[in-house]
Amino acid sequence: MEQIIETVRSFDGALVVVPAPGGDLPEIAWGDAFFYYAPDGRMPERGQPYGTIVTKDYPGDTASDLAPPDRWRVNVKVDRSTFLDLTGEEPRALARPRDHAAVDTVLPHPVYGALGWIAVVNPAEGTTELVLRLLRAAHAAARARRR
User: Fold this and answer.
1) Coil, strand or helix at 126
2) Of the residues 33, 88, 97, 115, which has the maximum number of CB atoms within 10 A of its CB?
3) How far is the C-alpha of 21 from the C-alpha of 144, rounded, in Å?
């Protein structure tokens, strides 16, 4: 997880927000990470991050089984073509059953897959480099949108 966070921090104009106790963000987000293109260093008031790391189950998002220790999930917004290449399905036409708790496997996000988000629980040898490439591309897309 730290390798991914540090790599994203190295992207030009990247802002990595990791909520912690005592901050302005809600307790449920503490320990997670949110990735933005924000060259001014301020979290955007509008718009979503292009990637996240979550370290726990959220209400309505429990399929990845992030409750046990040392389980976490990286989520990345990808374009339609990339989503299709990675999952074999169109984002808005997901029909195949999947084990969203599988580790080191690229899957549609269990909640936001229809919106073009992919997810990987505990990226390891099989997916870390791919996840980093996807985050670089998502960062570049966020930068292009901002400009």
Assistant:
1) coil
2) 33
3) 33
How many Cβ atoms from other residues are within 10 Å of residue 20's Cβ? 11
Q: Which residue type is seen at 37? A: Y
Reading phi first (left if > 0) and then psi (alpha if -120 to 50, else beta), residue 65 is in left
Is the pTM for the entire model greater than 0.85? Answer: yes
pLDDT at site 47? 86
Helices 128-146 and 2-9: crossing angle in degrees, nearest 10, is 30
First to last CA, the chain: 29
Please list, in sequence order, all residues whose beta carbon lies within 8 angstroms of the beta carbon of residue 131, skipping any fewer than 6 positions away.
4, 74, 76, 120, 123
Q: Are 121 and 111 in contact (CB under 8 A)?
A: no
CB atoms within 10 A of CB 111: 17
**Dihedral angle sign, alpha carbons of residues 85, 91, 94, 98:** positive
